[in-house]
Amino acid sequence: MITGTDLAERFFSSNGATYDQIANLSTLGLDIWWKKLILNKVPKGSRQILDQACGTGILTFKIARKFPHCRVIGVDLQDEYISIARKKAKDLQLTNIEFISGRAEDVILDGGFDCITSSYLAKYADLDRLIENARGMLREGGVLIIHELTCPANPVLASLWKLNFKFLQTYGAWKYPEWETAFRELPAVLKETNWVNELTEILKSNEFSNINVASLAFEASAIVTARKAR
Known about the structure:
Elements: H1 4-11, H2 19-26, H3 30-41, E1 48-52, H4 58-66, E2 71-76, H5 79-92, E3 97-101, E4 113-119, H6 127-137, E5 138-149, H7 155-175, H8 180-192, H9 195-205, E6 208-216, E7 221-228
Parallel strand pairs: 1-2, 1-4, 2-3, 4-5
Antiparallel strand pairs: 5-7, 6-7
C-alpha cells in the first residue's frame, strides 16, 4: 500500500531547485494569492508560528517578514528542501526563523504555538495524527490554517482543471522533466482524496471550534481554519 509519505517522496525527490517556479507555474500564479490569504488569517500578535510542509520556505519567509518579533519554525520531509530554505534564510538575513527536517506528523514541539500553518500537506498527511499533535502544540485559542489543492466537483470547472494538468503534463514535463512524475500522478491523487470532509470531522472530534472551509479559485483549492477550544 502506497502511503502519503511514499507519494511525497516520489513527487518531491531531487527537484527542490525548481520548486518555487513550479509552485507558480502549476497554479497559474495563484499560489502567490493563496499564500497572501493564509498570511492574513494568522493571528495578529503571534509570538510562535509553526509552518508544516514548508518546502523551500515560500510561506515561511512571508510569515517571518510579517511577524519579525515572532519565532517561526518550518518543518519539511525533504532534506534537500530544508537545505535550500536555510540558505535562503541566511541570504535574506532573517534571524527569527529556523528549519527542522522531518515528517510533519512526527515533529512535535513544545512552546504553545499561536498558529500552525500548512500548504499542500493535507493530501499526503495522516490527518488523525497531524491534528492530534497540532492540538497538543497549539496554545488555548491557537489557530490552525490548512491549505491544499482540490478537484472541482462542478463539471465545467473540472474540465478546466483537467486542461491545466494536460498543459503541465506536456509543456511542464518537457520544460521541467524532474516534475514529470508529479504532473502525471497528482490528478488521480486529488480525485481520490476527500481531505476537506475528513479534516473537518477530525477537527470536530478533537474539539476544535470556529471551523471554516473556504473554497478558492473555482474549486481548485481550499483553506480550512479552526481554533483550539479554550
